[in-house]
Write a structure and sequence with these properties.
There is one protein chain. By secondary structure, the chain is mainly β. Among the domains are: 45 residues, no CATH class; 31 residues, no CATH class; 96 residues, Jelly Rolls. The chain contains no helices and 28 strands. The strands form eleven sheets. It has a four-stranded mixed sheet, with no helix packed on it. A four-stranded antiparallel sheet has the order 20-28-22-25, with no helix packed on it. A three-stranded antiparallel sheet has the order 7-8-9, with no helix packed on it.
């Protein structure tokens, strides 16, 4: 006749036998918790080992090789604590580790099928990349290598035709030697300013002329002034006194003459500038006719009418004359009839 063998047991949930209550080789059961207990002795130290069936359910699967996979969210309370987790599929040791400080290390290929959120709770947009801020990561627009790389263009006006286009720009250089300054404002921002320029034009006793943006400055010729622009090659503006062409002084030697020291003297009434000299003689000569101009008996310059001609123009001079000085003309070479020498304060 058969008989039922019953082990030591408890029907109180959470009840665990003590090491003193179990002999080596003896087992005990908790029929409520579904746990089996036995005593283990190592180096004279006793401990209780508990065995329990774990129902993985739909979230956790354990295959015959002992590999564990989790198919749902996992959470844990403060106790028990873990010194770290190491998920290592067969043949790929230490593929994913999480230490006790929460640091995650991945030693194999990472595939993401969802989204990554940065330190500002942003999931980014097309062609953005994660970049370090020193204290975290941020999504930022990609600036090279395809995608939404930066493009720089030259255009005719704000919305005019494109004359130059450069794509996939990773950096823009500003020429500091032309007065452009670049300052780092942090967090990926820079400030570009024009350091060397003239914005205000000052004229003593007049209102300032102040440029606004790309402004236009117009030069207007006043009475007796001529302005001439030269827009090609060496760009320049020529300012010419186009006022009266009356001479400051005209020296005349009438009739035939040869070498002749000046006897007529010119005394300026006001400060002026000799810029041009015109020589003329009544008859073309077969030899050069040369005269000299003197300031208070100090030689200034020789002026010559070449042989066969009766006229000569000298311009581009810059002799400043003052009241109290005297000017004379001497014939120092050649001869002629009816000589005239006129001094002008403009470039003829």
């Amino acid at each position: 006749m058969s008989s039922t063998i019953k082990l030591r047991r408890s029907s109180t949930s959470g009840s665990i036998p003590s090491t003193a209550s179990l002999a080596n080789g003896e087992v005990a059961l908790n029929t409520v918790d579904g746990k089996l207990f036995f005593k283990k002795t190592v180096a004279g130290i006793d401990s209780i080992v508990a065995l329990q069936q774990i129902n993985a359910g739909t979230g956790v699967a354990i295959d015959t090789g002992g590999n564990v996979s989790i198919g749902q969210d996992v959470s844990t309370a403060a106790s028990p604590t873990f010194s770290g987790a190491n998920i290592s599929p067969s043949g790929f040791p230490s593929s994913l580790t999480v230490n006790s400080s929460g640091q995650v290390s991945i030693a194999n290929t990472l595939r993401l099928y969802g989204t990554i959120t940065d330190s500002l709770s942003s999931v980014g947009s097309n062609y953005q990349v994660l970049t370090s801020t020193g204290t975290g990561v941020r999504w930022r627009t990609q600036t090279g290598g395809g995608g939404a790389g930066l493009t720089v263009r030259n255009t005719q006006g704000a919305n005019g035709s494109v004359t130059t286009e450069v794509t996939d720009i990773t950096g823009i250089n500003f020429d500091k030697s032309t007065g452009i300054n670049v300052a780092d404002q942090g967090d990926g921002n820079v400030f570009v300013s024009l350091g060397s320029s003239f914005k205000t034009i000052k004229v003593a006793g007049q209102s300032d002329v102040v440029a606004v943006g790309e402004d236009t400055l117009e030069l207007i010729a006043g009475t007796g002034i001529t302005l001439e622009t030269h827009p090609t090659a060496t760009k320049s503006i020529t300012i010419t006194n186009s006022g009266s062409t009356a001479p400051i002084k005209t020296f005349n030697i009438l009739g035939d003459f040869g070498l002749l020291p000046g006897t007529a003297r010119f005394y300026p009434a006001a400060q002026d500038t000799i810029k041009s000299v015109v020589l003329s003689v009544g008859v073309n000569r077969s030899s050069d006719l040369t005269v000299g101009l003197y300031n208070s008996n100090q030689f200034l310059q020789f002026f010559t009418i070449p042989s066969g001609q009766n006229y000569a123009l000298y311009t581009g001079l810059n002799y400043v004359i003052y009241p109290g000085e005297s000017y004379t003309v001497n014939v120092v070479g050649g001869n002629g009839t009816n000589l005239s020498m006129a001094l002008f304060n403009i470039n003829l």
